[in-house]
């Protein structure tokens, strides 16, 4: 019966086994009714936007007075090429920077191991001189800066470059992707570097997010929305817990904890995932870590649209896919969004494709009207039911991870990712997972499109990038203050050997124009490469 006492038309029943399922295995009904929300306490489980447990968003006004940050990922060639592209994107309306490097290699560009790598998958950074060039002509206090990759030297070079602009560290806002990798060792085996960054940012760079729990790239393997949620909650909770065990205040730590999430094809599940994760995170912090500050309980996250969902076949279709992913992120209340370029599946994005990505966000912000209402899907029988089911599935897996013996959760997450990658590819190959243009609606003679390497502004790999990079590195070495360099190296090695806080001496090393390769080599000489990898923050998984 409805609220007026009238009998509702019956929803045609089907065998639940015939229902389509989300990536998390949740059966999707043909229609949802108030019966699917029976027993829900609005104030306790949903509540208004901006109110605990933040199911409907962290701000009551949503995007009305503060739009999400348009933040395209960029890193290209040497510092000069990256600077040119960043300034272009800012002119086109990008409102934040996301800088990606070629793994921030633990060796110099002059090393033979860099052959064919310099600038191929991101900007190559050797020394502070490179970072100064990356931000030349860009006021670093006027734009938030996200650093992809867990590199303490690169983080310190960003801070040092800002000081070269005459800025104080408390004028800066941004995020360092400081997180425990799911394929790495658990925090207790990583030395103190993770918590070093938390403490340093809390004390010296108060507007900087000290952590970005990245499960977005793990999702790219093909794990489900519920797994993405559970893995992220587990890693974030473990990080806050570890910092508190070292004496940090849970409210201060949680307030600057952020997440890096994915947006995939199943729009309804993705919207529900963001809502469920926000609610679960708030409850975990409040109930288990005694976080009393409401703002500190808010889950804040950046979304990068799915890359694995894009295809090299009929690439113009990727514009539509990316737009749908972006809408899911907007409906889910993301704080910032990066839209993968339609040609990114085959090349470093062209200017044309990156401009389309920026325009995608601008059209949604300014023309669609969806930003006028906070959580417009709130109250939908379908979305609220999916939110509840995803929260239950994600929290059940979270509890499983927490119950595992120390060190077992991380290999489990890694193995789950590998299994998911195989299963996703198998489902694509056998047609169970339709992909337009790839395994259905295939064009025999595809329309020739101006995209990718042939598109406007898409760079071919240039071997001269390495030549110029090596040249600049040598010039820096010739001109730097040797006594300052030697003193900084000595203090960095001593801090590492003593397991003392590492960020301040690393910042001094950056100021002395010590290269990332020199820092990693000096530290590896203390206890070897394996120990350096275990501690994290200096050698990334790419090397």
List the helices and strands and how they pair.
Blueprint: H1 42-46, E1 69-70, E2 73-74, H2 79-91, E3 96-99, H3 128-134, E4 144-147, H4 152-164, E5 174-176, H5 193-204, E6 208-209, E7 211-214, H6 216-219, H7 225-245, H8 250-255, E8 257-263, H9 267-288, E9 300-305, H10 317-331, E10 336-338, H11 351-366, H12 381-403, H13 409-429, H14 464-479, H15 482-497, H16 503-511, H17 516-527, H18 529-535
Parallel strand pairs: 1-10, 2-3, 3-4, 4-5, 5-6, 7-8, 8-9, 9-10
Structure characterization notes:
This protein is of the alpha/beta class and 543 residues long. It has 18 helices and ten strands. It has helices at 42-46, 79-91, 128-134, 152-164, 193-204, 216-219, 225-245, 250-255, 267-288, 317-331, 351-366, 381-403, 409-429, 464-479, 482-497, 503-511, 516-527, 529-535, and strands at 69-70, 73-74, 96-99, 144-147, 174-176, 208-209, 211-214, 257-263, 300-305, 336-338. It starts with 41 loop residues before the first helix and ends in an 8-residue tail after the last helix.
TL;DR?
The chain is 44% helix and 7% strand. It is α/β, with parallel strands linked by helices.
Keywords, separated by commas or semicolons:
TIM Barrel, 5-stranded parallel β-sheet, alpha/beta, 543 residues
CATH superfamily: Methylmalonyl-CoA mutase
Total count of strands:
10
Round the mean pLDDT to the nearest integer and report it.
92
From the coordinates shown, what is the CATH architecture? Answer: Alpha-Beta Barrel
What is the CATH T-level topology?
TIM Barrel
- Gap between N and C termini: 63 Å
Query: In CATH's first tier, which class applies?
Result: Alpha Beta
How many distinct folded domains? 1
> Main beta sheet: strand number and arrangement?
5 strands, parallel
**Beta-strand level of the residues, as a percent range?**
5-15%
Computed structural class: alpha/beta
Shape: globular
């Amino acid at each position: 019966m409805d609220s007026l006492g009238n009998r509702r038309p019956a929803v045609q029943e089907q065998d639940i086994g015939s229902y389509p399922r989300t990536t998390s295995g949740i059966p999707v009904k043909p229609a949802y009714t108030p019966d699917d929300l029976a027993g829900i306490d609005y104030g306790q489980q949903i509540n208004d936007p901006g109110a605990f447990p933040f199911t409907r968003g962290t701000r009551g006004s949503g995007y009305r007075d503060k739009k999400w940050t348009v933040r395209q990922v960029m890193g290209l060639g040497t510092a000069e090429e990256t600077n040119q592209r960043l300034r272009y994107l800012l002119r086109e309306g990008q409102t934040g920077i996301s800088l990606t490097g070629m793994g921030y290699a633990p060796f110099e560009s002059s090393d033979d191991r860099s052959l064919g790598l310099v600038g191929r998958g991101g900007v190559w950074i050797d020394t502070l001189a490179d970072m100064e060039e990356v931000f030349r002509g860009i006021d670093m206090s006027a734009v938030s800066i996200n650093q992809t990759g867990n590199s303490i030297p690169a983080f310190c070079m960003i801070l040092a470059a800002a000081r070269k602009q005459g800025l104080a560290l408390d004028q800066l806002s941004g995020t360092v992707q400081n997180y425990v990798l799911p394929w790495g060792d658990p925090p207790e085996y990583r030395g103190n570097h993770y918590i070093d960054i938390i403490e340093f940012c809390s004390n010296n760079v108060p507007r900087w997010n000290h952590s970005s729990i990245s499960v977005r790239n793990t999702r790219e393997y093909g794990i489900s929305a519920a797994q993405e949620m559970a893995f992220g909650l587990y890693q974030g909770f473990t990080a806050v817990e570890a910092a508190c065990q070292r004496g940090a205040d849970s409210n201060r730590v949680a307030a600057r904890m952020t997440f890096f999430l994915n947006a995939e094809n199943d729009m309804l599940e993705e919207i529900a995932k963001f809502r469920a994760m926000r609610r679960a995170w708030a409850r975990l912090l409040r109930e288990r870590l005694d976080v009393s500050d409401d703002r500190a309980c808010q889950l804040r996250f950046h979304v990068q649209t799915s890359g694995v969902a894009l295809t090299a076949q009929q690439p113009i279709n990727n514009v539509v896919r990316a737009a749908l992913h972006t809408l899911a992120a907007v409906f889910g209340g993301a704080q910032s969004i990066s839209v993968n370029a339609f040609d990114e599946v085959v090349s470093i994005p062209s200017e044309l494709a990156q401009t389309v990505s920026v325009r995608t966000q601008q059209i949604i912000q300014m023309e669609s009207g969806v930003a006028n209402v906070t959580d417009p899907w709130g109250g939908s029988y379908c979305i609220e039911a999916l939110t509840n089911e995803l929260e239950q599935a994600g929290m059940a897996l979270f509890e499983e991870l927490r119950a595992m013996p120390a060190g077992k959760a991380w290999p489990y997450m890694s193995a789950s990712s590998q299994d998911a990658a195989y299963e996703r590819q198998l489902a694509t190959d056998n047609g169970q997972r339709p992909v337009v243009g790839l395994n259905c609606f295939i064009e025999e003679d595809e329309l020739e499109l101006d995209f990718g390497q042939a598109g406007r502004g898409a760079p071919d790999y240039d071997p001269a990038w390495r030549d110029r990079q090596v040249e600049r590195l040598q010039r820096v070495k010739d001109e730097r203050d040797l006594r300052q360099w030697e003193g900084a190296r000595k203090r960095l090695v001593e801090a590492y050997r003593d397991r003392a806080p590492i960020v301040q001496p690393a910042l001094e090393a950056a100021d002395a124009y010590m290269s990332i390769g020199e820092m990693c080599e000096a530290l590896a000489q203390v206890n070897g490469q394996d120990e350096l990898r275990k501690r994290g923050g200096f050698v990334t998984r790419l090397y």
